[in-house]
Structure formats: C-alpha cells, structure tokens
C-alpha cells in the first residue's frame, strides 16, 4: 500500500492531501501579502510625512539609507531567532524609514515630471500582478534562479557604482533596464518561494521583506526610466 506524503497523516486520501496543501499555500500567501500591504502603507506614510512637512525633517537622506540597511539585517536576525513580535516592529520601523529615504526622490520627480510617479507606481503594481499570476497559475519551477539573479544583481550594482567613478561608456538607461529585468526576475523568484514553502524558507515576514524590496526597487527603476522624458 502506498504511504502518505511526508508531513501528512497516512489516513488522508490524495485529494484530501492536495486540498490541505492548497490551504497551507493560501495561508502563507495571505500572511505574506498582509505584511507587504502593511509595509507599503507605512512607507507611504513616511513619504507623506516628508512631503507635507507635518514633521520638520532636516536629516540627510543618506542617514535614512544607512539606518534602513541596518534595520534590514535586524529584521532578518530577529525573525530567524523566532522573535516575531520584535521582528514585526522592526519591519514596521524600517518601512517608515524607507519612506523617508525615497521621499526626496519622489519630490524631485513630482516637481519635474509628475506623471512619471503615477506611471512608475502603476507599472510596478502591474509587474507584481503578472508575476504572481505566472507563478500561481503555472507549474514553473524557479529553484535554480536564486543564485543567478543575486549574481546578476551584484554585477549590476558594481557596474552602476563604476559608472559614477570611472565614467564608463554605458548609458544610465541601459543600466536601469538591466536592473529592471533583474528585479522582475527576483519578483518571480520570491513569489515562487512563497508558493514552494521550502523548509527554512517559509517565514511570512521575511518573504514579505523580500517582495517589499523588489517592489521599492522596481518602482525607483521605473521612476528613473519614465522620468528621463524631461
């Protein structure tokens, strides 16, 4: 007699195991999307605080970037140590700080090419919807994409920095397009991670953090591309 799949009681029928698996997938996806929605709402709040001047902020934006990077590592460390309450609080704080960091960039484009902000936001949302549909409506396996995408991202960052110091003959548009393709790939990969629920890679908060970073970076890349029209 065939045994049940690992992690399921032997008395469960195949269709019951499939139904249970679907329920678990939906549960994780709903928790990831809830964290993602909350973080984006808090980032919007941080941007609004800066743009409306409700709170006078005279801190150099690069300070916010340094703090945000530190908070990313803190969120990862606390989440992996199973301190979800502290990790959630740090993630919320990080989301607000990230909003304060990108606010001056958004303000700049609102003053020069305001349409670019809305187009970048709609484009990012569209990419996320398509990526989620591709992953959840197909049986695509992206397990091998992770290392290649991270390697490509590292190369893209190094090239971007090199062009600033060495004035390489590479257009900023080409760099933006290249990074955009990489982050589209990362978005697909991170949605696949949510669906796959691999052991040790099924923490809803950390998965939401990855998708959040994909969203913010895609938005900034598209903003840069659409803002070049001026």
Describe the structure.
The protein has seven helices and no strands. The model is unreliable at 1-8 (pLDDT under 50). The protein is mainly α. Helix 1 (14-52) packs across helix 3, helix 4 runs parallel beside helix 6 and helix 6 (172-196) packs antiparallel against helix 7 (204-226). Helices cover 79% and strands 0% of the residues. The protein has helices at 14-52, 61-80, 84-112, 114-137, 145-166, 172-196, 204-226. The chain has one domain (15-229).
Quick recap of the structure?
By secondary structure, this protein is mostly helical. The protein is 79% helix and 0% strand.
Shape: globular
Distance between the termini: 70 Å
**Strand-pairing-aware structural class:** mainly alpha
The largest sheet, given as strand count, sense and whether it forms a barrel, is:
none
Strand content: under 5%
How many individual helices?
Answer: 7
Overall tally of structural domains: 1
Provide the helix percentage.
over 70%
